[in-house]
Design brief:
Length: about 375
């Protein structure tokens, strides 16, 4: 199959987070289930699947390529074509997940025959997670299994769309639901009840105030844009009818923290500052990705791709979780983050080809008998 064929197959599966992912897992495993590949289909407590596939000796450290199989919904968006059918529009390959990040998955799967033909001295691991789009909820279960399955990897390349520019760092994130309890009553005498919406509204205004203080007072890290931790209220809900005093209201807040000011610290501050009658629960969280002590992998990838190393981005990825588990990680993948989650998401064939070239060259350098592998045939790409 060509790389485009594989991408079309993956795009055709509406693998939404938080839903059964057997279809996308089956499709990926069909490419991986062959002699020479050690394949693990790993269940999560939520009833979904992560995948770990290894080529080469698993008892020595190697390199990991990581991506997620889920995509965001296309509901409510105005697409010019079916979002779950790969459609060529000029030089664009349009479809949900093409940039984020089934393009990278397609490259990983298309490389498998090449990897099997190589005399790998170190392994190449393909890690494919579920439920990334709802707060990186699937990959912690995969990471927890790694010590039982493989030697600790030397490095991990997380293929989120970065236009093949290696990214060294990103912010951490925590999403929290805050619930306010009131006392119901008839709206004809509001003083007899306790309006939970008013408490939620005051809290939302306090979130706005704290967000302003973060912008003005920091702490700051000029690697990032914006250079500070951020806080916002994204959803507020409460009440059942206009003539009933609402006894419950919720606010969803999100903090994104620079590495030296983690999001949980931001959340702790805002909750400590708000009193009584509120309960909270964490819905999603992942740590920041700190710059690796040794940036040589990022610089090699930049040399191979012709891109500049990016010091930091404000969006988050699973790279922070891999790094927190002791696996040096860098973000580097085809496509652009600006296309993700939007109508008519797309990727270009030349971007996929560049990604394949860069990954193959890096695998040759890190994992193989260089002379033998540089002379091995290269599979056609698109």
């Amino acid at each position: 199959m060509t790389l485009t064929d594989i991408l079309a197959e993956l795009v055709a599966i509406p693998s939404l987070p938080g839903t059964p992912n057997d279809a996308i897992t089956d499709a990926i495993c069909a490419h991986l289930d062959r002699p020479g590949v050690t394949l693990h289909r790993l269940p999560t407590p939520e009833g979904r699947w992560n995948i770990l596939a290894s080529i080469g000796p698993t008892d020595v450290p190697g390199i990991m390529l990581s991506g997620h199989g889920d995509v965001v919904s296309a509901e409510g968006q105005q697409w010019s074509s079916d979002p779950f059918r790969l459609t060529a529009q000029g030089d664009r390959l349009v479809g949900r997940g093409t940039s984020d990040m089934k393009g990278f998955l397609a490259v990983m799967l298309h490389l498998v025959p090449d990897l099997l033909a190589m005399d790998l001295q170190r392994p190449v691991h393909l890690a494919i997670s579920c439920d990334e789009e709802i707060g990186c909820q699937g990959v912690p279960h995969l990471i927890a299994r790694l010590p039982d399955l493989i030697a600790p990897p030397l490095a991990c390349i997380v293929g989120e769309p970065s236009d093949m520019a290696p990214v060294l760092a990103h912010k951490g994130k925590q999403t929290v639901e805050v619930t306010f309890a009131g006392r119901p009553g008839h709206s004809s005498d509001p003083a007899r009840g306790q309006n939970a919406i008013y408490a939620a509204a005051r809290f939302a205004l306090r979130v706005e105030e704290m967000a302003r203080l973060l912008r003005e007072e920091g702490p700051f890290d000029d690697s990032f844009d914006p250079p500070c931790s951020t806080l916002q209220a994204g959803v507020i809900a409460g009440g059942t009818a206009v003539n009933i005093i609402p006894d419950r209201a919720t606010v969803l807040i999100e903090a994104r923290g620079i590495p030296d000011h983690p999001p949980e610290a931001v959340i702790t501050d805002i909750l400590a500052d708000f009193p009584t009658g509120a309960a909270h629960r964490v819905l999603a969280a992942y740590p920041a990705l700190r710059k690796a002590a040794d940036p040589s992998l990022a610089h090699r990838l930049a040399n191979r791709s012709g891109r500049q190393v990016v010091q930091a981005v404000s969006y988050g990825t699973e790279a922070g979780l891999f790094a927190a588990a002791g696996i040096p990680s860098v973000i580097c993948g085809p496509g652009r983050i600006e296309r993700a989650h939007r109508a008519d998401e797309f990727i270009r064939a030349d971007e996929l080809n560049l990604c394949r070239k860069v990954l193959r060259e890096e695998i040759v350098a890190m994992c193989g008998d260089v002379d033998a592998m540089l002379n091995s045939p290269v599979k056609p790409m698109i």
